[in-house]
Design brief:
about 475 residues; alpha/beta; Spore Coat Polysaccharide Biosynthesis Protein SpsA, Chain A; 2 domains; nine-stranded parallel beta sheet; seven-stranded mixed beta sheet; 41 strands
């Protein structure tokens, strides 16, 4: 039986190949920086590399090298990547073998190297850990992560000996009918002993019209020098799917999203329709919360316990406390405290704080404002740059007129005030504690505590 503990990583480095342009993406953005689950694609490979606890991580960059370097450095800082990162520049885009050849000064520091591709974001820690562990146990010179696909079209096929040893990798363009009938394919993830890898790199011949050097050719070169090539078969074939086009990007995004939703469901969150629910990698959701269909959560959104969110909600960098209900609404860069009710069709804009026990109802918009404990903005209102203290009722159609054409001004509404329907509060203005504003009024001056303010023309009826 194979040991389940891998030896320490102090003699192991991880190399991530991230130099390609990705021409089939039809984009000015480097392929590995395309977003997936709210993160650049390379984040998932970088996180995986860090989890292996290597001595260092090497990242090969080429196309738009400075952009990729900056993004990787920012990701490392934001997400707690603890392993040191070294960048290697591939001067010319001459294939994966050339990328590894450019990395020799990095690789020669280690006894063992794991090589991963920055455009295979679905690889799992279990499989890559298993790959490294199998490499140690089998004591070969190279170990490949492979998978068996029902439709292997587009992938290099694994040719084995009758004893199961890997003989070579055959690219689809040059495979014989017998070889192309094989369904075990190469994932592009490898574990190498560094010494035979470096020896083999010197002998890789350029191929094709672009004179590229392919890392897959290293296998036959290692075997020709007496080395042994092993394969570790992934139990999860979908993880080897790479991203070379927008179609494949969407397919991989669906897998990433499904995995995250499954993680939430296993931790006590109800997701009514995973197929219509999209959640980014940094989102947090508390136990016993229910997510209704057609809900999107982006950025660092955090939802508390026992909430109901959806249907048809969009939340981005929103913080929602326990026992809240959000229906058919948009919340961006705001805080919602416990036991609030929002929607339907409310728009809570940045720098707003609601609650506890506040209500913002249908077709109401709140921007850069605080709606205090138990206060209500039930319908058809705009609340901008406003401080609403506790237990205030804001009537339908109320507008805080916060902008004079040059500057934004503040409105303050005291505790237990009552704002009638169709009121305009022309800022800067203060409505005192317990004050009442008559329906249809346009208020331009402060209203003292407990007063009734009426600011409208007297009704005149004419026959």
């Amino acid at each position: 039986m194979m040991n389940t503990q891998r030896k320490g990583g102090k003699n192991m480095g991880v190399l991530i190949l991230a130099a390609g342009q990705g021409t089939r993406m039809e984009s000015a953005l480097p392929k590995v920086l395309h977003p997936m689950g709210g993160k650049p694609m390379i984040f998932y490979t970088l996180r995986l590399a860090n989890a292996l606890k290597p001595a260092a991580i090497g990242v090969v960059v080429g196309h738009e090298a400075e952009k990729v370097k900056a993004a990787v450095s920012a990701l490392a800082k934001e997400t707690g990547i603890t392993r040191p990162i070294q960048f290697i520049v591939q001067k010319a885009m001459l294939g994966s073998g050339n990328a590894v050849l450019e990395s020799v000064p990095f690789l020669k520091k280690f006894k063992t190297a794991v090589v991963l591709c920055g455009d295979t974001p679905l690889l799992t820690y279990e499989s890559i850990y298993g790959l490294a562990l199998s490499h140690e146990e089998q004591k070969g010179q190279a170990t490949l992560l492979t998978a068996k696909l029902a439709n292997p079209k587009g992938y290099g096929r694994i040719v084995r000996s009758p004893m199961g040893e890997v003989l070579r990798i055959v690219e689809e363009s040059v495979g014989s009918p017998k070889e192309l009938a094989l369904n075990e394919v190469n994932s592009g993830a490898y574990c190498f002993e560094v010494e035979p890898l470096l020896l083999g790199l010197k002998d890789i011949s350029p191929k094709g019209p672009k004179k590229e050097q392919f890392l897959t050719d290293i296998m036959e070169l290692v075997r020709s020098k007496g080395g042994k090539i092993n394969a570790y078969l992934s139990p999860n074939p979908e993880e080897i799917l790479g991203v070379n086009s927008r179609v494949q990007l969407a397919a991989s995004e669906r897998v990433i999203n499904r995995r995250m939703l499954e993680r939430f469901m296993l931790s006590g969150v109800t997701v009514c329709d995973p197929g219509s629910t999209h959640i980014d990698a940094d989102v947090e959701i508390g136990q016993d919360t229910v997510i209704q269909p057609f809900t999107v959560m982006r950025g660092k959104t955090k939802i508390g316990r026992q909430c109901r969110v959806g249907p048809f909600c969009y939340l981005e960098d929103a913080q929602v406390g326990n026992e809240c209900e959000v229906r058919s609404s948009q919340l961006v860069s705001c805080r919602v405290l416990e036991k609030c009710a929002i929607g339907p069709f409310a728009n809570i804009r940045p720098d707003s704080v609601l609650g506890p026990r506040a209500k913002v109802g249908n077709f109401s918009e709140v921007k850069n404002s605080r709606v205090g404990f138990g206060s209500k903005v039930p319908h058809l209102s705009y609340i901008g740059d406003t401080e609403i203290i506790e237990d205030v009722n804001v009537g339908a159609g109320t507008i805080t007129c916060n902008y004079d054409g040059k500057t934004k001004h503040k409105t303050t509404i005291g505790a237990k005030a009552f704002i009638g329907s169709n009121v305009n509060l022309v800022a800067p203005v203060k409505v005192g504690r317990g004050a009442k504003i008559g329906a249809g009024s346009t208020i331009t001056e402060d209203v003292p505590d407990g007063n009734l303010a009426i600011a409208r023309a007297r009704q005149v009826n004419k026959a």
